[in-house]
From TrEMBL:
<dbReference type="Pfam" id="PF01981">
    <property type="entry name" value="PTH2"/>
</dbReference>
<dbReference type="GO" id="GO:0004045">
    <property type="term" value="F:peptidyl-tRNA hydrolase activity"/>
</dbReference>
<dbReference type="InterPro" id="IPR023476">
    <property type="entry name" value="Pep_tRNA_hydro_II_dom_sf"/>
</dbReference>
<keyword id="KW-0378">Hydrolase</keyword>
<dbReference type="InterPro" id="IPR002833">
    <property type="entry name" value="PTH2"/>
</dbReference>
<protein>
    <recommendedName>
        <fullName>peptidyl-tRNA hydrolase</fullName>
        <ecNumber>3.1.1.29</ecNumber>
    </recommendedName>
</protein>
């Protein structure tokens, strides 16, 4: 594994002309952020099974309406 130390910055740009709600924009930006980190780790050979080995939980579910608990 490479032992390169560096600082990274990230900028996520969202298009306004897509007419998405603020929550949808935030969700899409969050997904883009996580994917960029995973891609960077994979490039360094550190992210092959990161999701499973670090106990990350991915919940993929959609609701038409939110019901309070």
């Amino acid at each position: 594994m490479p032992s390169t130390s560096y600082l990274a910055k990230q900028m996520i740009v969202m298009r306004r002309d897509l007419k998405m709600r603020k929550g949808k924009i935030a969700a899409q930006a969050g997904h883009a952020c996580v994917e960029a980190v995973l891609m960077a780790l994979a490039r360094e050979g550190r992210g092959a099974d990161l999701r499973a080995s670090d106990g990350w939980a991915w919940i993929e579910h959609a609701e038409d309406d939110v019901t309070p608990l």
